[in-house]
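Now for today's protein:

——
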Amino acid sequence: MKKDFYFSVLFLIVMTIFMVSCSEDDGSGVSESQKQITSIVSQLEKMDGINSSFIEGLKKLDFSKMDEKAFTVFAISDSPLKSSASLGSTSSDMVIERQIVKGAYTLSQLKNGFILYTLSGDQLAVIVSDGVTYINGVEISGSVTQVSNSCIFKVNQLFPREMVEVKKVQFVVERCNEGWSPLNMQPYMLVPEAEINIYTEEGNLFGTYIADRYGIVKVSLPVGVYSYEVNKGNERNIFSKQEEAGYVIAGIFTSQDEIDQMPYQLDVKLGGLKYVDYNGDGIIDNNDKTDRVYFHVESDFSNTVYIASLNFASTYLPTVSITELIFESQDIFKKILRINYGIDAVLTHQATINQTDFVKLSNFNIHPDNSIVRQLWDYGYSFIIRANKVINHENLSEEQLMGALFYRAYAYSILVDYFGGVPIISNVTMGNEPRSSVDDVCNYIYAELDMIIAKGNNSLKYSALQLKARIAAGKGEFERAKMSLQEIINSGLYSLPSNISTWGGDKISEGIDLRFSGTDDVLRKGEFSYLIRYTETLLLYAEVTANLGEITVANQTVNMLLAQQNLAPVNSSSRDQVHDIIYELRTTLLNKEGIEYVALKRMNKFLEVLQNFGAQEFHQLLPIPISVMSSNPNMVQNSGY
């Protein structure tokens, strides 16, 4: 009996285990993932406005082999698709699976920069901008519906397959130490709780972020263009006295080296604020003002932002006077003269400069990466931009205007002599302007010189006449050149020096009163450099009259110069004979004065004189610098380079 009882108990235990096992086997094909999707489908069928094709596609997916315990489904609504066919045409498993994310997320859990992983294997990028959440560019709005362990959002469109590229950007906010000194050496302090407003390229607020206790803000941004502004209380990173736009703070000056290396800024001193040269022209002025700091997001990066109080910043707001601007312009013009003298002298073999790229010029081993050629271009346009600023200055006098017009015309004449057609820049910044033709540049120069000539009888007028004649002769406009030169000669204001050794003195009778000190270098012949000399006036007059067939007039002019040197007069019978004498006189009287290169081209003697040194026909123009070619897509290189 007892044995039967034990047998009965054992039988019941076995049957119980068997029944439990059977019960489990009955549900063995329903995974936890399938249960979640079944609940989600059931909920979607109860919700209004869900696309029926999306629901049917979801039902067909096989979840039996998945072990996910929760999903977030971004269900497609009916309204934007107009009809189920709109989704039906694309309702492959992959399309549906791209709308399903592994794991459950509420709206608050969808953080900026977060990456979601879908059942299709795609990645979705979360962007939060101005309080609005986007996934792969699709706005996520409305409330979340929670079902079992999962979440449902209703969206108006399918997620694009291509993920929005997101980069990590870090801002470090530092306060400028207003009490900095050599004894108080800490220039900056981190600023916790500073506020950074980031804007889209269109100017819409992307988001407002607060720095942590280390002054750091970390934000994920899609690739693109943005701008920002930073503030804390009365401290800002951009300052102006009245206008919205202002100067961007770049820190404080803590050494003389910093001052020397920074763009030109008025009233700088150690411990004072330095500002960003926003347009990159080498001078801090009104053209550097901006309402926000713009930046490109192309890769992960970190950026330091400097802020200062209103009282401190207003002490150092740069206001460039016309006097300061002219002084800065003259300093750069001297650089043009120095580089022009050097290039002209080595190309025409009047001098040797033992510097690698000068040697290459003298051997006509000239390439677009030559640093001397680049300096000529850079100095030329750096000056032109500054001259434009002078011309546009509100406190400009007529005398200052005429001076700026002349020197700008002179800079253009140097550029067109060496490069041919060049861009004409009338603004205070340089963009991707294409080259203008030689005729257009020369006509631009003529117009400026004619304005100066029309203003009256002064030294600048005769300098303008001489430059006009030089350009006209180079273009073969000999009658125009002759008329300008005759006006200088007939003025009676100038004469040849009795002693040619007086060149370079403080004041010489033949100097048409445009002289510069401080241009001394290996080619120095005196304390002062004269842009325009009466000797050139007479040599050029002899040249153009010979070109016009007026050989007698040309001989008379040449003989004036020969008599100055106690040499016998000549009686040339042809233009070529006159030109040969002029060439000899010019190499003696105007040696190393920056005009021989263009004169050889003008008189068709370029190859005759320089071919033995390696010159070829295309060397009559220098190459456009490689830096310009690479940065300006509209620039065209000169032939032969």
Summary: The longest helix spans residues 322-347. Confidence is low (pLDDT under 50) at residues 18-27, 80-91, 503-508, 517-526. The two ends are 116 Å apart (CA to CA).
